[in-house]
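Dear H.,

Thanks for agreeing to be a second pair of eyes. The structure we're designing against is below in token form, covering all 357 positions.
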């Protein structure tokens, strides 16, 4: 079988190219080689989070792998058939559990049986989707394409100490269906979850209250949850805080936004930042937020039929992901819009069906 070659310096040149390549290689059974891994990052090559994704997909597929070590800038991956069942993967740092889920989910969703995967590492860390975004935005959106999965949060992990744990449960799908997600529709409700660990409860409450005040002008119900722990019963390594917001429409669409706490950043600023970001997403009228736009790309191409989405902001992550997907599947994405502006993305999916058990 011909090996797909991916140039990791293309476009935004980050770790997403590796994750998407791993996912598509596992789903399709196609070997690949990636060079110049994370070439545009300050610390190029495989870091612990990326290495965990490689080793996890190696275990899931019985792959032959070369170049799987920290700092490696080139990797070859030759997968076998996807296994399913119970697995545990420990990043060993505050590396993002959400990004490991991105790499694993397509293969598990299109396998022949259910799987339960425990992942340990960071759940709320910079430069990655918070785990609450995965739970309340990413998975609900992917369910519209036929992905049947959920994530249980066992323990949060923040940078730099990590120590978080999540459980990903995936039930198999025979195939993915195309979607049309254009206009967001009428806003009917905003929900949110504000958390603080190894910090006073008022930190989470102030984040939530600031977000509610900033969103009050939307004129819809706001359901805000607060998660905090008494000092003597807080199981986290911490400290850390954050908030994730998501908006629901009368058409079943959901868009999200988030903000992380950090030393010297007032809790009010965290809540206001998340609210401002959510209102910016809603202001475009698109059904898909800027982060979900790039995550949908591989699923759209694997689905049966033509998918079209309106994304609030076209990112380099999205265009780079299109490059990877086109290399594996031979599809061609059509994009109406420019980088950093709202855009419509369409593709005729290949209708991939899961392999035999």
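And this is the sequence the design step returned. I haven't edited it by hand at all.
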């Amino acid at each position: 079988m011909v090996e797909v070659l991916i140039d990791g310096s293309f476009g935004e040149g980050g770790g997403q190219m590796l994750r998407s390549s791993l996912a598509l290689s596992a789903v399709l059974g196609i070997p690949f080689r990636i060079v110049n891994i994370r070439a545009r990052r300050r610390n190029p090559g495989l870091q612990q989070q990326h290495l965990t994704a490689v080793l996890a997909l190696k275990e899931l597929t019985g792959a032959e792998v070369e170049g799987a070590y920290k700092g490696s800038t080139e990797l070859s991956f030759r997968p076998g058939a996807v296994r399913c069942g119970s697995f545990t993967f420990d990043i060993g740092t505050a590396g993002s559990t959400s990004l490991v889920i991105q790499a694993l989910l397509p293969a598990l969703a299109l396998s022949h049986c259910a799987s339960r995967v425990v992942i340990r590492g960071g759940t709320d860390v910079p430069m990655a989707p918070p785990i609450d975004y995965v739970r309340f935005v990413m998975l609900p959106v992917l369910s519209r394409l036929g992905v049947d999965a959920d994530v249980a949060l066992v323990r949060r992990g923040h940078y730099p100490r990590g120590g978080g744990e999540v459980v990903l449960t995936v039930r198999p799908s025979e195939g993915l269906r195309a979607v049309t997600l254009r206009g967001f529709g009428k806003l009917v409700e905003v929900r949110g979850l504000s958390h603080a660990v190894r910090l006073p409860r008022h930190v989470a409450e102030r984040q939530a209250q600031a977000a509610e005040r900033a969103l009050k002008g939307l004129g819809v119900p706001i359901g805000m949850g607060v998660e905090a722990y008494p000092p003597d019963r807080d199981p986290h390594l911490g400290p850390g805080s954050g908030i994730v917001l998501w908006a629901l429409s009368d058409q079943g669409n959901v868009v999200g936004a988030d903000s992380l706490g950090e030393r010297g950043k007032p809790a009010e600023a965290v809540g206001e930042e998340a609210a401002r970001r959510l209102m910016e997403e809603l202001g475009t009228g698109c059904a898909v937020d800027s982060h979900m736009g790039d995550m949908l790309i591989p699923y759209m191409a694997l689905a049966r039929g033509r998918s079209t989405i309106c994304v609030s902001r076209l990112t380099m992550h999205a265009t780079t992901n299109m490059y990877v997907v086109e290399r594996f599947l031979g599809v061609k994405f059509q994009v109406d819009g420019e980088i950093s502006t709202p855009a419509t993305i369409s593709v005729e999916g290949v209708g991939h069906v899961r392999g035999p058990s």
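Two observations from my side: The chain has a mean pLDDT of 96. The first strand starts at residue 4 and ends at 7.

Warmly,
E.
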